Amino acid sequence: MLRLNVTRVGFLMGVSLLLAAIIYFFAANWGGLARADKILASAGIMVLFYGVSYIFSKMKLMLGHHSFLSAIFLVGGCISFGAAVALLNQIYNSHADNYELFLVWSIPALLFSLITRFNPFYLLAYALVHLTLWQYFFPTSLNVVHTDSELLMIGCLFALINLILFVLLEAKVILSAPLKYVSFIVFHISLLVLTNSTLYEQYGPWMNILCVAAIAFGFFFFTRMRLNKVMLTLNALAASAYAVFKFFELMSEHTSTTFFVLGLVFVTILLTGNVFFFRYLNKLGSQALSTEKQADGAEAEEHTSVLVGKIVSTIVTIVGVVIGSISLIGLVLMAAGSVPPENVLLVISFLFVLPVLVLRRLNAVIRYTVLTIGYAAGLIAIAWIDTAGLSLVFLAVTIAGWFSLHGRAQHLFIYSLINLNAAILLFQLFGPVHHAASFIVFIMASLNALIYASHLLMRESPLKQHLRECGLFFTLLLLFWLTFMDDIFPNSYEWFNILNFIVVTALAFLYVRRNRVMEATVSLVFWFVFLAFKYYDLFWTLLHKSITLALLGLIAIAVTYVFAYRTRSAVPEGADEYSRLLRRSPILIGIVIVLQLGYVGYHAATSEALLASGTSIKLAIEPIDPRSILQGDYVRLGYSISTPPEHLAKEVESRRSLSRIKVVLREGDNGVYVFDRLYASGEKLASKEIVINGSSSGWRTINYGIETYFVPEGTGTETEQNARFAYVKIGKKGDAMLERLSKE
Fold first, then answer.
1. Cα–Cα distance between 191 and 160 in angstroms, integer?
2. What would the mean pLDDT of 519-532 be, rounded to a whole number?
3. Do residues 693 and 734 lie in contact, with contact meaning Cβ atoms separated by under 8 Å?
4. CA distances from 475 to 354, 452, 688 (A)
5. 379, 383, 376: which is closest to 327 by C-alpha?
6. pLDDT at 590 over 80
């Protein structure tokens, strides 16, 4: 089983690198390919992914590997379709990250999820549908203004969609545990945002009632009607989040000594409730798991329940510590008087920490909370006082807390405080040094690497395990941080990037092979985070990154395949969950793939037809220079025709956001078209007039769908400085397409 996991991690990394290479290549907007070549390349990559998926699905050797490769290449094909649609919008200068991109992309993802019932497709479709809605209401490349009532309706729409989806999942119409948890969490987040009384003065109180009712019904449903410890724990997290959100909302309006005292009382109630809730949850026992579970899945669900419970308990405790620290600091600042508040804060921190380190028989939750509040206050105090000797003393007291506390979460928290304390001390010692920040991060990374290595000299114990996990996490975190810092020595920036990739990749394989779930998860997370963040890094251009990642991806897949073949690790055909994906409905899967290719061809054909037959007009512009993740650098354009004349401004403003508007343009001086009037249905146009379709922004501006112009990587600033006019093609129905920019 370990060999199987190692090979699957290798294959997943290889395919991920290939997909990243494709996205980077398209986003680079390389001028070496013509429009037709780019379109054919994108379609060819889709066919390649789907073809490889089909080939692997037919192989009978190495069961468990070929079927897994078939599954991830099928998902990769769907992702490459999204990249192809983004490329089409880039070629024809559609809006950056517009809702139509995600809408078109979500359709095959939804169809694949229904056909294959594969969790990655469910989650991909879920993300794309939400991105479609978000980009429709809040487009990246446009300024759209919504009224309070519109914002309320948008929030209610997100909440309703997730509620309906959760009901379908709970009724087992759809089978996907990850999607069930995600929809439940997003539903409560949507409701929580809507309870903001500052933003929604009129509707906030009513939404508070609705949110509380949803939480109360959740407790009733998951304890009385359908017992489920995981969902009950998530519902408790929603209740805690609501209480904390209301606390900060009230704090922003009522800041006083009394309020901060009540804040400490609130923390006590929050943490006490946390303790009693999990005691109650433990009493439910194994029979409190979902009554719909199968007997052979009881152990897995119990494990999930315990894991989620630990995460939620840790979150609630940390939030309690933060609120308690804020309340304590607020009290000190308001009550200090003539005494320096930083000194008072330091004394209080010692009064909190030292007695609790000695009194080990106190209730664990109370003890941990008081300790962490004291440590947090002390860190603020030593940073405020700025004395290295005092920081060193407090570091010793913090290290003592490591040996006084027990548990993975507690040790991770105190280890984080030790690192913060050490960082403060190093800044106090080496602050004047040139590139001090880079130097200190390097020292911190080296110290954590030594601490991580020191576990090899220790005998096996929970303390050793926690030290290894904490040392690993902070070593990778600081090593990743170094990939963004200035050079400490010549070319150190490049070397740290290379070192980070090699170390994280090696650790991911090592811990997967040794079946250490926590360390393997941390390593894989940092691996994907590195890959994502380096998209914006200037170490290489997107084109060079694309070539490098493609080679690394191919090497990873080849090496992993050889390893899988030599080890002969496989799973029985009946136990291979991936082997059934393409066998369920191969004809339907083929139809979806043909539809994707058909859309690519149709989009390209209609766009080329508009460029060939549309009427060309010249418009004055004002460019800006951002970037789209999928489509690369672009120039965001503001037009003179975007703002209507003053006598029409109120009429445009009165229309709701995103409503359709037709505008009549007439040719002005130097052949530049200007805003003339709003089009009245059926009216005749003069010879130098043309109609263009637009939409209201909810304010005194109109968007025409030509506000984005994609440029090769790194040329946006030059385009912004030189371009003054846009040449636009207008179709017979008023649809516009941006053709090119020019100085004159």
1. 10
2. 87
3. yes
4. 29, 8, 67
5. 376
6. yes
Range from 24-38, 286-300, 356-370, 622-636 that averages highest in pLDDT = 24-38
85 and 107 in contact (C-beta within 8 Å)? no
pLDDT by residue (tens digit) across 599-654?
A: 999 999 998 888 888 888 888 887 665 666 666 777 888 888 888 888 888 888 77
Q: Which residue has the tokens 């993975």?
A: 408
pLDDT tens string 546-587: 888 899 889 988 988 887 777 665 555 555 667 667 776 888
Residue ranges of E strands in 76-165: none
Q: Across the chain, how many H-helices and E-strands are there?
A: 24, 10
| Rounded Cα–Cα distance for residues 141 and 132 (Å) | 14
pTM for the model? 0.78
In whole angstroms, give the CA distance from residue 187 to residue 262. Answer: 30
**Helix (H), strand (E), coil (C) string for 263-301:** HHHHHHHHHHHHHHHHHHHHHHCHHHCCCCCCHHHHHHH
**Secondary structure of the chain: what % helix, strand, coil (to 5)?**
70, 10, 20
Q: How far apart are CA 96 and CA 635, in angstroms?
A: 10
Paired tokens of 209:
């009632």
Instruction: Report whether 705 contacts 693 (CB < 8 A).
Output: yes
Of residues 568, 448, 482, 468, the one with CA closest to residue 61: 568
What are 85-97's pLDDT values in tens digits?
988 988 888 776 7
Contacts of 278 (CB under 8 A, 6+ apart): 309, 313
- Among 59, 69, 64, 66, smallest CA distance to 4 is for 64
CA pair distance 710, 637, nearest whole angstrom: 11
Write the pLDDT tens digit of every residue in 59-87: 776 667 788 888 999 999 999 999 999 88
